[in-house]
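In this supplementary section we document a worked example of the pipeline. Step one takes a protein sequence of length 364 as its only input; no multiple sequence alignment statistics are reported here. Step two produces a three-dimensional model, which step three serialises into structure tokens for compact storage. The input and output of this example are shown verbatim.
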Amino acid sequence: MAMTIHDMDQLDTMLEAGQLMWLDVITTDPDELDALGERFSFDPGAIEDILDVEQLPKFEDYDDHVFVVIHGLSSDGDRVDTREVDCFIGQNLFVTVHAEPVVGIDWLWDAVQRHEHLAGDSADELFGQLAEVVGRRYIEIANEIESRIDRLAEAALDADPSVLQEVQTLRREEATVRKMLRPQLLVIRDLRKRNMNEIGKEAARLLGDAYDVHRQVVESLSATRGLLTDTLDTYRGASADQQARATTLLAVYSALLLPLTLITGWYGMNVRGLPAAERQHSWWIVTLIMLAIALVSAIVFVQIGLIRLPGTRQGRVTAGLAAAAKAPVKPFTMLRKPVTSGSKTIVASARRATGRASLRRPSS
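The serialised model returned by step three reads:
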């Protein structure tokens, strides 16, 4: 059941009733974060971590709650990027804090409102679902990189100079994702294996699914680096072969012109009796013949690929992976059956952009 929370006292009432609450907070205001930590007795060190610039994935086990930092997929201009998502897992309270909207969170938010059983029976199970959704977002990036590498391989066979720039672009994007995914994979692995009161058996199973998804992406990205290296080697080999063919052709062309040059030099001496030397337009005729030979030679070189005109180069294969990062989440099958108990999941919003909730008590 989705609700609009106008007062944090209303949240306290629901928590006392034993209802599972998901509070999603989009803010970077230190005062609001301090108020959030004070309201729910979150550890001050966790609040300080939220205010730090881009924490790596990690988790801290406190007495009555677990603080987890994960990173969801996002974009920065035409480049792929990640956004920090700070999670608090309590007894019946799940709080997510992030500076900007994250597509994976928005998708799960809407899914829980439509299908309450997806949230499970506790906050740790809801976090397990979120970890899997966040991981599946990275699968889209891994698949897009592999698809673009396939197109790059064709361009590399043609020794297209744009391959160098494209390979560097994909390497940069892959490094951005891998930098966050590797520690995030370890965090999920440790969460499902450690014996913590806030992480139950069902949540551990869900985290196992999230771990498998993250591991698949990490392995795919590891293979990607090898594929990019192979593509670069293919380009270098094709470029070297093209240069060798150009050298051979120019050598043959020079050999063909050498006798003509010899004859021209021989008959170009300052003697009388040369054919058409005394005619009025003979110089223009010879000049036009020379220009025609040069033009025909240039056309032949373009057709066989020795000369590349700006309009004949292949377009860029990729201009960053921002489009894949912004793409909506693809639906995937949830095998969890609806719970038969009468519990309800309250999805509460504290998004400053919509103003649907306040993190502070109303002034008296």
